[in-house]
């Protein structure tokens, strides 16, 4: 059902979005039907079909999407996958290096366990975890600070 309201000179105004939804495709079915009828009467070829209209709409959307991506890239919100992979590899190496240092804390954990039991070991492990998180966060900050702007240059045709 379409919402209508009275217009000037006895016309009815229709909500355009509701009309497009009712028609099924964005376009004016009445004008398309009238053009096809005229073409049949005149014996000429039919004008642009709904398929052509749909193709043109897709092409326009594609162009708009490309412009959106270009803008996002210029604003620094998009980066090449290769740069993300490289940064991920660096971060992975840092995390592995920090984790491989865990055995060096064995004596501290053992001493805490002997002195205060499981509760002492838990407290020491929490402190070690805090220290490792801080080291990882600092290393990530260094990598982010070293990051260079994207080197992609948009095509100029």
Descriptors:
157 residues, elongated, mainly alpha, 4% strand
What number is the mean pLDDT?
81
* Low-confidence regions: none
State the end-to-end CA separation.
Answer: 48 Å
Taking the sheet with the most strands, its summary is:
2 strands, antiparallel
Our count of domains comes out at 3
Strand content: under 5%
Radius of gyration: 33 Å
Helix/strand structural class: mainly alpha
Number of beta-strand segments: 2
Put simply, the count of helices is 5
Based on Cα principal axes, name the global outline: elongated
Question: What is the topology, as strand order, of the major beta sheet?
Answer: 1-2
- What is the share of helical residues? 55-70%
Describe this structure in words.
It is a single chain. The protein has 157 residues and is mainly alpha-helical. The chain folds into 3 domains: 1-47, no CATH class; 49-78; 79-146, no CATH class. It is built from 5 helices and 2 strands. The protein has helices at 16-23, 29-42, 50-74, 81-100, 106-146; strands at residues 4-6, 12-14. Strands 1-2 form a two-stranded antiparallel ribbon. Strand 1 and strand 2 form a beta hairpin. Helix 4 runs antiparallel to helix 5. The longest helix is centred in the last third of the chain and has 41 residues, at 106-146. It starts with a strand and ends in an 11-residue tail after the last helix. The model has no long low-confidence stretch (mean pLDDT 81).
Secondary structure blueprint with pairings:
Layout: E1 4-6, E2 12-14, H1 16-23, H2 29-42, H3 50-74, H4 81-100, H5 106-146
Antiparallel strand pairs: 1-2
